[in-house]
Each structure stands twice: as C-alpha cells, then as structure tokens.
Specification:
- It is built from no helices and 16 strands.
- The strands form two sheets. Strands 2, 3, 4, 5, 6, 7, 8, 9, 11, 12 and 15 form an eleven-stranded antiparallel β-sheet that branches.
- The protein is an all-beta fold and 201 residues long.
- Helices cover 0% and strands 52% of the residues.
- The protein folds into two domains: 21-116; 125-200, no CATH class.
- Strand 11 (143-148) and strand 12 (155-160) form a beta hairpin.
- It is elongated and about 55 Å long.
C-alpha cells in the first residue's frame, strides 16, 4: 500500500547583516541600493521568509525605513522600521522578497540592511495535515510555533527545543495529525533551532 505522506525540509541560511544593502550614504527620502550579497537584479528573494534588520552608523532614531516586498504567503507587504541610534533596528514582519527599502527622513550616516534570524517558513501553502516532526537543536533552548494560514494565524501547536547543539527531537503528533485548512507555517529563531523536517499529508 502506498503512502501519501510528504515532507518539507526547512533550514534557513545564516543571517547576513548587509546582505540586502551594503553600508552607504542615503539621501533624504531616498531608497537604499539593493546590492548586497543576497540581492539580484535590484531585488532580494530569501531562501526562507524572515525579518529584516537596518544598521545605522549615525542617530536615525527620529526617522524610519519602509520595507516593501512580499510576505511568507506571497502577498504584497510593507513594514515601517524605526531607525536606531548608531546601532541595529530589527523588524518584526516576515518577508519572502524585498523590492524596496526607503528612508522616511534624512539618515545621519551610512545605512545598511540585512536579513534577521526570525523565520516564518511555509510547510505547505494548501490544505495539509501535520503528521510528524524531526528537529535539530542548537545550543540555546527556545519555542517553535506552528500557525494556521500565515505567520499571524491561530497557533496550532508549539514545542520547546532543548539547549544541546546537534541533538534531535521527535515531538509526538497525536492521533491523525493536526489539520491546517489553508496552509501551515512554522515560526522559530535560528538561535534556537538549526533545522526541521515536517511530514504531512
């Protein structure tokens, strides 16, 4: 008898602090140049949807940066990130692609943009039933969250990783699995989870 179980392997690339845009002066109300190592043709497509970081050399705490692209579901998305004072400002939205980052105001010094460590990876974007999980830990414990429909959808399941690098976990999925009626997404940070394989039907 054949099985209808499928799997998705999720392992995100290491965060790159200037992978979107390398450090450069940015004019008042101008766009950052999307020319970092992660960019191609003036845009960025991530291996896994993730958050964005903005590094300011000067005091940009009085201005903001508008990030435009698509989110983890493939829908058009924007986020306004308030700048930092000679430091890094971290966004909370998840982007699969970036097409523009605009300064809303006049940056005080060089600005760069990169990829963060918060991941919202699609397991499957259609109807699915989660059957099993194989997770590889890091040296830091944390919580992995499974959500319905999008990164802000209802929480379907959570489990805690353990602080033991390269060890594995097989969290139990009871009965006939967990139904995700319109797609399932797994949210985690790279500091607390190295990779995860999800099994679904």
């Amino acid at each position: 008898m054949s099985s209808d179980i499928q799997s998705t392997f999720i392992e995100a690339a290491t965060a790159d602090t200037d992978g979107i845009s390398t450090a450069a002066a940015v004019g008042d109300g101008a766009n950052l140049v999307l020319g970092g190592a992660l960019a191609s043709g003036g845009a960025v497509t991530f291996d896994q949807p993730r958050n964005i970081t903005i590094l300011s050399a000067g005091d940009d705490s009085g201005i903001s940066f508008t990030v435009t692209g698509t989110d983890e579901t493939g829908t058009s998305a924007t986020e306004s990130i308030t700048g930092a004072n000679a430091g890094t400002a971290t966004g909370t939205a998840y982007f699969a692609t970036i097409t523009q980052i605009a300064a809303v105001g006049d940056p005080a010094g060089n600005v760069s943009a990169g990829s963060g460590t918060s991941i919202a990876a699609p397991m499957f974007r259609g109807r699915m039933r989660l059957r099993g999980i194989y997770a590889v830990n890091t040296g830091t414990a944390g919580t992995t969250t499974f959500r319905q429909t999008s990164s802000s959808g209802a929480v379907a399941m959570q489990f805690n990783t353990v602080a033991s690098a390269n060890t594995t976990q097989y969290p139990d999925i009871p009965d006939d699995g967990i139904l995700f009626a319109a797609g399932g997404y797994v949210l985690y940070t790279q500091t607390t989870l190295s990779s995860i394989t999800v099994f679904y039907s």
